[in-house]
Amino acid sequence: MSIGALGTLLKACVEDGAGIGFILPLGQEKAEAFWQKQVASVENGSAFLMVARENETIAGIVMLAPAPQDNGGHRAEVAKLMVHPHHRRKGLARKLMAAIDGLALSLDRWLLVLDTVTGDRAEKLYPTCGYQKVGSIPDYAYGSHGTLDATTVFYKDLR
Fold this sequence. Notes:
- The chain is of the alpha+beta class.
- It is 33% helix and 34% strand.
- A six-stranded mixed β-sheet has the order 1-2-3-4-6-5, with helices on both faces.
- Strand 2 and strand 3 form a beta hairpin.
- Helix 1 crosses helix 2.
- The N and C termini lie far apart (32 Å).
């Protein structure tokens, strides 16, 4: 898997307004440096990456980070769900979320948690994938355009 292609996906999503931890402008070099660290986590087994492709192009991704704590062997965090703007409205996000459920269960992780920018399109997606809204935290993080955004926290019990 190409770090360059992952960087391009990240950059396109942030430029489209995705609240995934970056502020504009986001250069390709910074996007690739982020993915270098994530790939290292995948290689050492502390995270998992699922990729959706269309014609050999990375169209979307999602990550799963199992809780490392002794008392958290049943849970994992879902992170960095991204679908390239050119590949949206095709059901890829839902397919990635269903695939992450299967991966989590195969790892005996049945409680999934995630958060998303309040008001973002993803906030509407997660309940349709079986996630329950816990609540919102105001002024949680700076969005891609540099303003403080609230985050909404969700969980899903796969049992």
